[in-house]
């Protein structure tokens, strides 16, 4: 009987891990979908249209939970949402200047910034492997981004700022999610991003929220809203209750593989030698760090 339950639980665990793999693909492919939509929509209009539909869907589906929402959940969700807004705002404005394949490597380096922010906020320790990995991360970023003739570009800087915001987003979720409803936190986060992006769009992008433009890019908009946002973020919040944070981070690292692959196949982007070399260093650094962490916890 115990053996049967064990097999069943193992199968269920692999099911949760497969869902995380789908989340990684949804996030990795979002760079290409965003790049396509940015040909028509300005960044903050796109951000509003990405997050408003999931906010409305969650509000309708979980209206009863909202009735009992606590002020502490509002404060926590608002702070997490502020970091989420910063991450996406810098990502989309940076994506205006960079190929999707290159930016995905830069932004995904947030995985190795998390331990350092967590050390400062939660008083956690950092392994030697993580310290070494960060050195190689920055070496990879330097190879990809620095040009002797022009130096670092604005898109590179914006993408690095995006990575820092995403790292802060992960650490804030780790700190606040244990005793808060993940659906409520997700809804508050989405609401904050929707409100802030709408405000910026109305002030600085007066022709951004144009219905004709939205119709023209309806396919990437639907994908970003329903798959890369609603499905991916809610699935992550639910699955992380079953899968350890170390395994979650390791699986989500595959976003680094999916993003350039989709950009090459879907957008027809070409990977330069510098991007391939720097991206490989970043990918190996993240993988080695996460594998070492997983082995240490076994």
UniProtKB/TrEMBL annotation:
<feature type="domain" description="EamA">
    <location>
        <begin position="18"/>
        <end position="145"/>
    </location>
</feature>
<feature type="transmembrane region" description="Helical">
    <location>
        <begin position="79"/>
        <end position="98"/>
    </location>
</feature>
<dbReference type="Pfam" id="PF00892">
    <property type="entry name" value="EamA"/>
</dbReference>
<feature type="transmembrane region" description="Helical">
    <location>
        <begin position="104"/>
        <end position="122"/>
    </location>
</feature>
<feature type="transmembrane region" description="Helical">
    <location>
        <begin position="220"/>
        <end position="239"/>
    </location>
</feature>
<feature type="transmembrane region" description="Helical">
    <location>
        <begin position="48"/>
        <end position="67"/>
    </location>
</feature>
<feature type="domain" description="EamA">
    <location>
        <begin position="154"/>
        <end position="288"/>
    </location>
</feature>
<feature type="transmembrane region" description="Helical">
    <location>
        <begin position="129"/>
        <end position="146"/>
    </location>
</feature>
<dbReference type="InterPro" id="IPR051258">
    <property type="entry name" value="Diverse_Substrate_Transporter"/>
</dbReference>
<dbReference type="InterPro" id="IPR037185">
    <property type="entry name" value="EmrE-like"/>
</dbReference>
<feature type="transmembrane region" description="Helical">
    <location>
        <begin position="248"/>
        <end position="267"/>
    </location>
</feature>
<dbReference type="InterPro" id="IPR000620">
    <property type="entry name" value="EamA_dom"/>
</dbReference>
<keyword id="KW-0812">Transmembrane</keyword>
<feature type="transmembrane region" description="Helical">
    <location>
        <begin position="273"/>
        <end position="291"/>
    </location>
</feature>
<keyword id="KW-0472">Membrane</keyword>
<keyword id="KW-1003">Cell membrane</keyword>
<comment type="similarity">
    <text>Belongs to the EamA transporter family.</text>
</comment>
<feature type="transmembrane region" description="Helical">
    <location>
        <begin position="183"/>
        <end position="204"/>
    </location>
</feature>
<protein>
    <submittedName>
        <fullName>DMT family transporter</fullName>
    </submittedName>
</protein>
<keyword id="KW-1133">Transmembrane helix</keyword>
């Amino acid at each position: 009987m115990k053996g049967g339950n064990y097999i069943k639980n193992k199968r269920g665990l692999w099911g949760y891990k497969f869902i995380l793999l789908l989340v990684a693909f949804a996030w990795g492919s979002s760079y290409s979908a965003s790049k396509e939509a940015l040909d028509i929509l300005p960044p903050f209009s796109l951000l509003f249209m990405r997050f408003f539909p999931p906010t409305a869907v969650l509000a309708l589906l979980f209206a009863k939970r909202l009735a009992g929402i606590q002020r502490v959940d509002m404060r926590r969700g608002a702070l997490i949402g502020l970091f989420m807004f910063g991450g996406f705002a810098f990502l989309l404005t940076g994506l205006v200047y960079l190929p999707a394949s290159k930016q995905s490597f830069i932004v995904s380096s947030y995985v190795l910034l998390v331990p350092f922010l967590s050390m400062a906020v939660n008083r956690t320790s950092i392994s030697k492997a993580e310290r070494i990995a960060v050195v190689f991360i920055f070496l990879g970023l330097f190879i990809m981004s620095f040009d002797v003739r022009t130096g670092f570009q604005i898109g590179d800087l914006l993408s690095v700022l995006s990575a820092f915001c995403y790292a802060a987003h992960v650490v804030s979720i780790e700190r606040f999610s244990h005793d808060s409803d993940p659906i409520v936190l997700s809804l508050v986060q989405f609401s904050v991003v929707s409100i802030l992006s709408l405000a910026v769009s109305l002030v600085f992008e007066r022709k951004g929220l144009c219905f004709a433009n939205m119709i023209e890019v309806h396919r990437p908009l639907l994908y970003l809203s329903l798959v890369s946002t609603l499905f991916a973020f809610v699935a992550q919040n639910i699955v992380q209750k079953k899968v350890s944070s170390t395994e979650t981070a390791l699986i989500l690292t595959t976003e680094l593989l999916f993003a350039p692959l989709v950009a090459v196949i879907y957008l027809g982007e070409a990977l330069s030698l510098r991007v391939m070399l720097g991206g490989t260093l970043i990918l190996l650094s993240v993988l080695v760090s996460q594998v070492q962490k997983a082995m240490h916890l076994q």
